[in-house]
Each structure stands twice: as C-alpha cells, then as structure tokens.
Amino acid sequence: MDLRDLFGYLFILAGLLQLLTAYLIFAGQRHYVLRFANRKVGSIIYVIFAFVLFYLAYYFLV
User: Fold this and answer.
1) How confident is the prediction along the chain (62 residues), in pLDDT tens digits per residue?
2) How many CB atoms are located within 10 Å of the residue 41 CB?
3) Whose CB among 6, 12, 39, 42 lies 3.0–4.6 Å from 57's, allowing a Cys bridge?
4) Where are the membrane-spanning stretches (predicted)?
5) Domain residues for 49?
6) Residue 22 to residues 18, 38, 52, 62, Cα–Cα distance (Å)
7) What is the pLDDT of residue 37?
C-alpha cells in the first residue's frame, strides 16, 4: 500500500466522521461550534469540511 493510498483512505474516514458530526449537530447534540453559530450554520460548516476532506481523498486516490 502506497502512502498516497493511506492518506486517501484516512481522508475518506475523516470525511465520514465529519458528516456524522454534522448530523449530530443538526439533530440537537450539544457541540462547541454552537457557541459561535446556530444549529443549521454549524451543520453546514461541518458538511463543507467533509466535502473538502472527500476532495482530498479523491486527489490522493486518483
């Protein structure tokens, strides 16, 4: 396994965890981002982070 493949898989896993965090924030779970933004904006921030991580995974796996 190449190091680029490992980074790609790690970025996929991190993106999935970011999506899970976005869902939990939207569902009402307390999180530190809620001190700065409301529930919808916090979820959108984490979804954007997830898409950035998925893009990085695509970059490293292709």
Assistant:
1) 799 999 999 999 999 999 999 999 999 888 888 788 888 998 999 999 999 999 999 999 99
2) 13
3) 12
4) 6-29, 41-61
5) 3-61
6) 6, 12, 14, 27
7) 84
CA angle 49, 55, 58 (to 5 degrees): 145
Expressed in percent and rounded to 5, the helix, strand and coil fractions of the chain are: 85, 0, 15
Size (the chain), residues: 62
What is the distance between the alpha carbons of residues 5 and 2, in angstroms, rounded to a whole number?
5
Look up residue 33 and give its two tokens: 């981002």
Rounded Cα–Cα distance for residues 28 and 3 (Å): 38
The pair of structure tokens assigned to 17 is 């965890």
